[in-house]
Amino acid sequence: MKKSLMGIILSIAFLVSCQKNDVNNSLSNQNALSDNPNSLEFLRSLPSYPSFLYPAPFAGTPIREYLNDQSPINIVTCNTVKIGSGGPSVHYGTITLSDVYYDVIEKVLKIKLTPLESTQNYISLGNRNYYLEEFHFHYKSEHSINNKFDSMELHFVNKTNDAAGLQYGLAYGVMISLNSIGNDSYQRLFFGAPAIDNQSHNLFGNETLDLATLLPSDQSKYYSYLGSLTTPNYAEHSDIPNAGPITWILLKNKQKISRTNLDTYRNKYTENNVRTIRPLLCRRVYEKN
Ligand SMILES: [Zn+2]
Predict the structure, then answer these.
(1) What separation in Å is there between the alpha carbon of 174 and the centre of ligand 1?
(2) What digits encode the pLDDT tens for the residues 154-173?
(3) Is residue 112 domain-shared with residue 212, that is, in the same domain?
(4) Which residue has the higher pLDDT, 229 or 267?
(5) Is the pTM of the predicted complex or chain greater than 0.70?
(6) Do 223 and 82 belong to one domain?
(7) What is the span of the domain harbouring residue 168?
(8) 8 and 87 both lie in a single domain
């Protein structure tokens, strides 16, 4: 009798705790976080409120919470919070180059996916799938690691909408440095892309591109923090915030291109398109090794 009564009490307690911790349980189940308590902290730190699209915030969005949480930042590696497993799962494949253009407002070479391709190329993190909308390039890098910048930075912009239609963003960033070998995909993209004064979107016709060729082969190591988009606000000392909060995943392994690849880009795109470093303030930067 005692045992069965205790069993009932335990069952009720279990059911109640399941309901209360539903989100946390699904997070830990998906990501096997038992190896490192910081991993769970990392996932719990993901935004519970949506990004807003600059310049108009969603009504009721707690702007003050992220007004100062802007990107890019300088990452100081001795101050990062080390996490274990539980990071993003990247599902990127081959896309068509049917919409490649120079965005005159954001000052970036941008490659947009079709709506169908967006549904097929996404990143899973926590309990959300973030769908890839576009990717674009910066010269030089926007982020710095221990005050060191790189030759370029590639940003994959991924978004998701919740049931209420509110939007959450995840930026997947790749630092690009130089080597002597180069990269055929970068060369093809930079060589075939339209110049700044050319408003064409379809110079590649129906050519395709495997996104994996733009990324380092080992994407298991990364930094992550909550920031913002970095475009279109390039003002040196402007306090106008860009859209946020955006979950940033910045890969630790770099992709390599050659001087020739970089020159092909720079011969076309001479404008500076880098936002200056923003203060980290109270934010944590997580690091997965
Ligand atoms: Zn960017």
Answers:
(1) 10
(2) 999 999 987 777 788 999 99
(3) yes
(4) 267
(5) yes
(6) yes
(7) 35-288
(8) no
- What's the one-letter identity of residue 206? N
What distance in angstroms lies between residue 21's CA and the mean position of ligand 1's atoms? 35
Q: Ligand 1 centre from 54 Cα, in Å?
A: 14
Question: Quick one: 20 and 88 in the same domain?
Answer: no
pLDDT tens string 213-266 = 999 999 999 999 999 889 876 655 556 777 778 999 999 999 999 999 999 999
Question: CATH number, domain at 187?
Answer: 3.10.200.10
Q: Please give the distance, rounded to the nearest whole angstrom, from the Cα atom of residue 23 to the centre of ligand 1.
A: 30
Ligand 1 centroid, distance to 2 Cα (angstroms)? 63
* Cα(27) to centroid(ligand 1), Å: 28
| Centroid of ligand 1 to alpha carbon of 229 (angstroms) | 7
How remote is the CA of residue 19 from the centroid of ligand 1, in Å? 39
